Batch of 2 targets.
Target 1
Amino acid sequence: MELLQLQYFERIAKYQSMSKAAEELHVSQPSLSSCIIRLEKELGVKLFDRNGRKIVLNSYGKYFLNMTRQILNLVNECKVPTNEKALMERINIGFMNYNEKMFSLIGSFSAENPEVGFNVHGSTMSQPFAYSAFDFIIGLAYEGIPLFRHELTIGSRHDYVIVPKNHPLAEKESIAFEELKDEKFCFLKDEDGGYESEYKACVMSGFIPKCAFVTNDAFYKLHYISQGNVFGFIPNTWKEVYEKCDKIVLIPEAGNLKETATKLYWSDATLDSEANRKFLSYVKEKMGGSSDIRE
């Protein structure tokens, strides 16, 4: 597999058009088509569904596109600046689940250690992860991270219902899913059509939620819900962010599932870097020397 194949594939996938990709890359369409055929043969799977001259990414193609973009981003990061003094040591962190506490620690560590930079990748919809690309990964305890056998508990997750401030349900101490069957919602939805887990919880409670606004971006969800027109769900890790919105209130889900621990994971290779060791020590110190650490 060649880097050029990945670059060509990424452009074709972006436009889902050989002609547009060829025009941007200044390459002939037959050359592009031949490149993708070789790539698919090497992978042993098709990346596109073809209908005449029209091409559409299939499910594996979407997965491979996510991996490809992570690889290309890493390649770009490897390009050494002309001025070597400008080259900062960088820490790569992958967020499988958003955690406000870790974002705050990254910010405070950066302020105290300006010689260290961060590359942060977020995946709010559990998209595929190239685990080996990261020094640290933030995820839930039940997810498990291949090769990342060290972990530190950095918090717990439980969920809140987002309620418009002027709605009658805003006065309740907790809300059951059944009470929400007549309301309108904002949900996250990934490119494969999968909704966030609370959508399924609504269905399991006996109703199909009315989706007034659907997006694949957590911050679009935040901006829409903050207007106070619809309901939604968030884990407690987003609580501080949403509490700043004056048109909504956050109410715990009734009968919430048992709290799930949020973990910081790292591998043996992570500790080969002085910057990584320094950051990990910093996190452990700020977490108050948590005893819930698996080495």
Target 2
Amino acid sequence: MTANFAISSSSMYGFAWISSARLYHRGARAQRPDCGRFTMRRSRFFVEPSCIDQENKTIRIEDANQIRQIVTVLRLRPGDALDVLDGKGNIYPCTLQSSSASKGKIRAGDQIICQFESASPAGGEASVRFSVALPVLRSARFEWALEKLTELGAAEIIPIILDRSVITYDAEEKLSATKFQRWHSIVREASEQSERALIPDVVSPEKFSDFVKRQELVAATKFIGAERADAQPINDAISSTSGTKNICIAIGAEGGFTDEEFALSFTHGFTPISLGKRILRAETAAVYAASVLVSRLDK
């Protein structure tokens, strides 16, 4: 902890070291700073809209991980408050009504019933819609990127298949249900933790050629990371897009994009940008680019 210094008015040598934790000077206690009122955070959970009974004003929570979090970790009981979101931008302040689960073991078919009175629009979304595309990475690194991009407000996260990707993937094959479910679970939990109103879309891995063609139709502004190139700095590039509501940023693999991939992206409207002097790992570059975008454009 950094110490602050206070000089006594009676003598230039009469000083005391003052801790920021407890402030004293010559025996006099400093006034406690006014930090305002603190609001207790209510736990948030996303459910499918089909779990919301508008007629009876009840919501079913059926996901085993969410039930375990409520019953075992948070130890919520009937009468306790929590917030439920429908993934469409609405939040339902609820009271836990009943639970069929016990603390010791969550069984198949267990559910929690919550009661609500009304819904309202949920906040927490970025004022600019942006997508981030990055190569499929090793599990731990890619999952870290999913979590952080969700916290930063990405609307869509796109795994792309590049010539230099470390993890090879056959785009003709469907992503395994287990892996896709894990990806969705990560972004859902990150959305709950960061108090977002929506869960970002995580699409199945796309070939780079398919990705750039699709983005030409959906994204108003498109950037592609270009290391070791004389490209416009990301801060300047993003600042010039003020007013744009739909932005896409593509990040390359560890070896960067190939010349052919750059050429293809340029024909579909992508603009090269520089992320700085240093070479970043793919997941670091994706999170850094999203951070700059949010700091510049999110109002």
